[in-house]
Amino acid sequence: MFEDVKRYVEAVLDKLSPARAQAMARAMAGGSREKVNELAKDLMEWSQRNRERLTELVRREVRAQLKALGVASKEELESLKRRVRELEKGSGKAPRRTAPRAGAGGGTKASG
Q1: N or C: which terminus of the chain carries fewer CB neighbours within 10 A?
Q2: Does this model's pTM top 0.70?
């Protein structure tokens, strides 16, 4: 019984191949070929739906955790980039490049 449950759970997490679905259906139904084929088809559809649900659940949880940590989404970053460009255009200033760090080469400072 436990092995059967384990196989069904694995079918949710892994992509269920037609051969594996057939084997599971034979073990469950043990009846006519038509009945086994129908059950195998149903198992494959069930497996696909559950994998999609699990994937979406993980995505939602990751998004929620990133939001809780204060990590900006890609959309938020793109929005901020557009806003900065608009502000730079409005002020008439050219986009500023990041200045080199002090002591990172280039000129030397006279010390006296």
Answers
A1: C
A2: no
- At a CB cut-off of 8 Å and minimum separation 6, what does 18 contact? 40, 44
DSSP-based three-state secondary structure for 73: coil
The mean pLDDT values, 10 residues at a time, for the chain of 112 residues are 64 73 76 82 86 92 93 93 93 65 52 45
Per-position b or e across 13-52, b if 16+ CB within 10 A of its CB: eeebeeebbbebbeebbeeeeeebeebbeebbeebeebbe
Distance of CA 63 to the CA centre of its chain: 9
> What does the DSSP assignment read for 29-70?
H-S-HHHHHHHHHHHHHHHHHHHHHHHHHHHHHHHHHHHHHT
104/8 Cα distance (integer angstroms): 60
3-state secondary structure of 80: helix
